[in-house]
Every structure is written in structure tokens, then in C-alpha cells.
């Protein structure tokens, strides 16, 4: 008689490796072979994962066709175990899998299209961020601005690709026009995937802004992030960035480092004209120290 | 831009924030029929506010913590009591319970204030690997101890009793020593949890394994039964499979009528997960359950 642990381990092994028949020994035949009974569970499990992948990757399925998608999914599923009870977490490595999948070698953009779909999926389910009023940013002393750590909205994801994956994605939506053709040699894109209201938006952004957002996402203070942007474009307009990304909630908050917190907040109602208008372009000169 | 408007826009709410609490929240689940809430029906339910007692969702669909799913659930919650039904906690695993999963559920409970919280009498993971399916347990003293310890831990972490649902099964283990109905009764007695009695699952398992479904109904402690489920099954290769993709079958309606006589009137859910039909079909099924429960309960009294 197996312990519960032994039974569970053998059962799961047999679900993904049909040569492992250990669990059959623990099951009553009762009019139907144990192998056939276990196969019902195996089929259910694989079916559930296949459907989960189809839900997250409809564009990939449309690009490669149902049969190829199923063929790829059935090879992905056994070697990419689910590690949580929430099925929405399944499928995150499908992009890397497709890039290494020899039968898909002729479609080099598949991996990044899959990355875009996974980003969309994560963004759709992500937590709600708190909205940041631009007024709050305007209470920060100008000298303290470079040391601020900005928090991006939980729904923000970034994706850089050498392929026009946003156009490939758009051309393969259910409501897309039939005759769209995408020029694969049209060049790469840098994308910000984020929620606007309840809808997920896929927004192309310029190289400097992408560098800045990527640095903020890594937890860099504004100073370092701005350096990254200005390494790409020395004239990058920080003020315009802040106004746009606070108002569309990409920037969902900021933390003032403790060492500069005291005295960094402008006293209210004292007519701090130059400080209160720092979000205008002329006043924004963050030191690149 | 006034701060309040900004908040509304950033959360994408169509209604003003105050509208979410426009009426007192009913937290209990009434002994009426409810239907499973699925994304394709969100808008129709909000637009038509059908006369159903309550709605049930799969908890894990809202673990992300934001966006459209939570937005709609909160708006629907403002109109109906909600039951949170989990499919992924894996109460029967020999691993320790997934604390992150419990935390996500607790966060969702704080936000939705559900009338009922339920899970399944099954296992779905071992050694950190999940199969995201409801696998049957062997009915042994060892499994009983594992499940009871996990139910107690879950209830402690969540701060309230949960209901545990009988699953349908396509196999039995040769070393089981306890009948399923005695097993689930014992789980309730030892852990203090309630029972979510799935009438379709009893029927499916009774046919697959050749036991008497009425014996099951008589063996479970009526006082512990806090909810019933009804769903459709399919017949595949000589077995009944719990597909949740069709109308409730006649023999399951019959068994439901008997359950109401034996156990009493309980909140009853029409479950439908695959090949989702128009909302009207779910509402018809719910109305049938309401009518049947009314007749049988009166008859029993």
C-alpha cells in the first residue's frame, strides 16, 4: 500500500510521462483498465493546459494555425510544469520555447509575438495601481527630483523587438481588416504595454523613453534613468515625459529617499513659483551628476 | 483636473465611486438558486439585473488583483451576494499548503466580502508541481489527517469556515478503506468545515463506481451542507465525465429533488464552464431548481 506521498508522486509522473505506469498498481480495475482511467485524467490535464495556452496566445495560434499550435503546445506542456494553483500563471515560458522549437525556426518573430501576448495577459490581470496626482510631484523640491524612485503602474510591461510585433499583433486581431500585410523588414519596435482604464494598450515608445522606463522599472532613481535616456538622446524632454506619464498613470507613485525627505517638500501656500512650475520644460534641468 | 475625477479615470470605472455602495451589502447567500458568473455575461448581468439570488466565481480568476475582472466583479458584487469557489488550493496535497495562494484568496475576500468560500475535496499538486485539475484522494486515515490539517490551516488563515466540495471521479484506489460519504462527513466533523454537495458529482461517481447515490445523501450530515451544485455531464467511453458543458440531466434533477427532501433547501448553483450558453439558459436552469426546491421542500415539511 503506497503512502499518500508515494501515490501523488507516481500519479503526477504518469500524467506527463506515459512510460511511467507506477500509479496503475494503486487503482481498481472495476470494469475498466487502470491505464484507461488514468488516461482520462491525463487527457483532461493536457486539454486544460492547451486551452490555457490558446486563451493567452490567440495571435500565435492564428499565425501558425490550429494544428501546429496544438503540436507545439503538446510538446511545451510536459516539460514546463505549472507551479501554482492559478491557471492564469501557466504559459510564461512559451516565447522562449517557440524560439528554440526547431519546427518554428522559419518564423523568427514568433518568440517576440508570444512575449507581447504574455505581457498583454499579465497587464490585463495586474493589480490596480493608485493614481498619482501631478500636484504631489510638484510639492517635491527641485533639488530632490533626481533622487526620486518612481513606481510604474503594476500593469506596465516593456518589450523591445527587432520585428514590428505590434503591427503583427494588430493585423491578427479578430476585428482586423482582412488584407493587412506587415512588412517584416520595416524595423523593430520598443513597446510599453499597460492598462489605460480597463483596456490594455500596446504603445510604441521612442528609444530614449524606453531606456528611461526600463531603468525606472529596475528600481533606478530618476537621475540614473535620465542618464540612460540622454545617452540615447541628449535632448530628451523630461518634463513632457513626466506630464504625459503621470496623467496616463504609467507613473503610479514615487518614493523620496529618506535622506532627502526632510526639507524636500515645499511648504504649502508660500508662492514657491519656480518650484511649482518645475514641470514646465524651462525649469527642468536635472543634474546629471 | 479634480482629484476624484482622476481616481475614477485611472481605475476605468464607469460609475462614480459612491455608486459601488449604493445599497447595503448583503453578505449571506440565500437558500435560492445562483449561477456561475463568467466574463462573457458580465455586461448583460449588470444591464438586466436578473432575478437570481446570488452568483459564484472561481476565486483564482480574480487573483491578479485588478483590471477588468475585478472591476466587473465589484460592480456585480454591489448588486448580488457572491460566493468564492476555489479550484487550486489542493487541500489533499502532501506538500504544505501554498501560503501565497491563501494570501491571494484572503486579499480577494477582503475586497469582495463573499457570502461563502469553498474549495474541493481533492488534490492537485505535489512536490511543487501543479496539474490544475481535481484529482481524487484515496479514502484512508492518512489522507483524512492530511485534508483535515489543511482545512484547519486554511480556515485559520482565512479567518472563517470554508465549504469543501465532493468531486466526481473516474477511478478508485484499491487501498481506500473509507466510503467517500463517510470521509467527507468526517472531514466536516473534525475540521469544522461545511460541505458543498455537488449533486451532479455524486451522480457521476455513483454511476462510474456503482454505488447508491441516495446512500450518499443520507450519510452526509445535513447540518453541515451549506450549498449544492448542479451541472451537466457527458458520457465518454462508458464513463460519465463531469464536463460542466450541458444542461442538468434528468436523473440529476431527480437526485436533487431527493437531496432537498433529505437534507433541506440550500443555496444551489447552476455550474456551466465549457461551451458557455446564453445567460438566459443558465437563468432557466436556475428557475427550474428554484421551482423544484420549493415543491420538494414544502413536500418534505
From TrEMBL, chain A:
Residues 280-289 have a biased composition (Basic and acidic residues). Residues 19-98 form the Putative DNA-binding domain. InterPro entries: DUF2063 (IPR018640), DUF2063_N_sf (IPR044922). It holds the Pfam family DUF2063. Residues 265-289 are annotated as: Disordered. This is DUF2063 domain-containing protein. It comes from Candidatus Accumulibacter contiguus.
From TrEMBL, chain B:
Gene3D superfamilies: Divalent-metal-dependent TIM barrel enzymes (3.20.20.150). Pfam families: MbnB_TglH_ChrH (PF05114). SUPFAM superfamilies: Xylose isomerase-like (SSF51658). NCBIfam families: PRK05409.1 (NF003818). Belongs to the UPF0276 family. HAMAP family: UPF0276. This is UPF0276 protein E4Q08_04075. It comes from Candidatus Accumulibacter contiguus.
